[in-house]
Amino acid sequence: MLSHPPLSILAIYGNDSVELNPFFEYLQSMAHVKLALEKATPADLSPYDVVISADTSEGDEKTEDLEQFAAAGGGWLKLVHRSTRPLPEIFGAQPGQIGPDAELRVLFDDPNHPLAQRLPDAVYLEGVYHPLKPAADDSELILYADWHYGHSPVLVARKAAEGKVACTTLQAYRHPVLQQILYRLLRYLAGTWDSRKMLGIGILGYAPSVGKIHGLGAENTSGLELRAACDLSPESLDRAQQDFAHIKTYAATDAFGADAGIDLVIIATPPNTHAELAVQMMAAGKHVVCEKPLALTRRETDAMVDMADKQGVHLSCHQNRRWDVDYLAIQQALREGLIGELFYMETFVGGFHHPCGYWHSHDAVSGGLTYDWGGHYLDWIVSLIPERIHTVSCTRHKRVWHDVTNADQERIQIRFAGGQEAEFMHSDIAALRKPKWYLLGTKGAISGQWQDVVEYEPDPVTYFEQHHIPATEMPPDLTLYRRHTSGQIVTQKLAVPERQHYGFHRNIADHLLSGEPITAPLAHSVRVVAILEAAARSAARGGTPEVLDG
Ligand SMILES: NC(=O)c1ccc[n+]([C@@H]2O[C@H](COP(=O)([O-])OP(=O)(O)OC[C@H]3O[C@@H](n4cnc5c(N)ncnc54)[C@H](O)[C@@H]3O)[C@@H](O)[C@H]2O)c1
Asked: Is beta strand 342-350 parallel, antiparallel or unpaired with respect to 437-441?
């Protein structure tokens, strides 16, 4: 797989390790980052690119050594934790008076700052209002907080001979955007942040469903540029050219794979072609993002992973539904412990409709009924229950739709090593739908009920037009149930975050261009295929439990 340029960090911290832990965990989640934790400044700083020093007692920090380290080309980030103790002059800023605890609206002073790429314009951070006072002409104000109709500096950087230093009073170390900013800042201080890099994107299979989405995702994400599309069908290539006039089009994969302007290929062809095309593109030296499901069998995913390893390129799956607001709300509720420990979950998709006559309904191409939505639902399940899987069982019904080869209904049940159970059911013969989500935890439950939205508009000929928004595209109605100490069950709506567009494309750019963690790791998408394959085996044997991870 792709390896990113290494970054070696030393963190010298005192009493604040607990507060800092979420940030340290974030750093440690990146394989190319080496983080050493020390209570005092070691004699030899040469193994490190950058040093973080937090609220250490004064003597331990060895200010002079760190100043020399920065002057010689290293980076030094000082985290100011509710302290008004003067900072070493090298930082070009001093802490001001500590104000009240507050949620701060924090912005980049220069919205086009190299560190601001692909980040929201403003971020809301819990903490304390604690301004920094720039104290040198060459201090660089990076972040400010809105305060009383003024801009209060909260992150200031400065050049220090060959190196760079910075200080900040922000402390919301759990916040994912602050984590990103601080990681980027560490690279910036170490002199290894390059925001000018661009990735040329090529779409292989300009699918009617997702071709344009990938094109727009690339065009709306800084650092990505759509350069080409390849498709066997001239009509699909025409559509690509109409949607994006500036791109090159290819009718053959060989020539497309040889285009040096393409760094990342997004594969959006039918599932039974994913593995072969992905291996071909990686062999040509391209990074690959493949549509879901990643492939149809474990043998295929093994070959894909082997090629990614051999070529040192990136491979992952377009798990765009990791940004669906209902999934994000449930993930957040679990992180906050709102239902205690999750031990049982059921998920459902479907209804009672005649399946389409296209490849989606034919198992030799699609993989089978559960391979389509299962590519998303099983990815949600493996991310919400990050445990080893013990067994997978599946039952199947073929009773109504005899003109297609996919089953009418499949129910996959997963048993995890810790005893947790999860189910995904897809039915095309369910006149009554089950809830989309049904989760039980040791302190409560969450349900997600489908929302059917129909819009009407007047029409002079037909009197009115009726538009259905497919229930699968509407966030379900999420309810949280908690057991009160009185024994009563208290219910409340579960808040959902604001919808964000192109989250997947931003994340892939963050990962490939700066090494930031990938939200939907390849291992999860590989595991989804392993579950689907084991489920198909189980169904063929009448529902026997298939052992997955041993
Ligand atoms: N992530 C999502 O939300 C999402 C949504 C819809 C579809 N998908 C996935 O996108 C993929 C495409 O689905 P679709 O329904 O749009 O399919 P489709 O058959 O409508 O479109 C596929 C396109 O690929 C082209 N193609 C097929 N084989 C090719 C080859 N060997 N070389 C070059 N081009 C080739 C076809 O000509 C066509 O233009 C599937 O993997 C599907 O699961 C994902």
From this structure: antiparallel
Q: Which CATH superfamily is domain 7-190 in?
A: Class I glutamine amidotransferase (GATase) domain (3.40.50.880)
Kindly provide the residue ranges of all beta strands, DSSP E only, lying in 371-523, ordered along the sequence: 389-397, 409-416, 421-427, 437-441, 444-449, 453-459, 463-469, 477-483, 489-493
Count CB neighbours of 473 within 10 A: 10
Mutate to test the pocket of ligand 1, among 238, 288, 291 (most ligand atoms within 8 A of CB): 291
Pocket test of ligand 1: the residue of 216, 243, 267, 269 to mutate, having most ligand atoms within 8 Å of its CB, is 269
- Between CA 46 and CA 398 the distance in angstroms is 67
Report pTM. 0.95
CATH number for 199-318 (one of 3.40.50.2300, 3.40.980.10, 3.30.390.50, 3.40.50.720): it is 3.40.50.720
Yes or no: say if 71 and 141 are a contact pair by the CB < 8 Å rule: no
Q: How many Å apart are CA 235 and CA 241, to the nearest integer?
A: 10
Span 336-384, pLDDT tens digits: 999 999 999 999 999 999 999 999 999 999 999 999 999 999 999 999 9
> If you measure from the C-alpha of residue 215 to the centroid of ligand 1, how many angstroms do you get, rounded to a whole number?
14
Residue 360 alpha carbon, nearest atom of ligand 1: 15
Q: What residue owns the CA closest to ligand 1's atom 27? A: 269
What SS3 class is residue 40? coil
From the CA of 230, how far away is ligand 1's center (Å)? 12
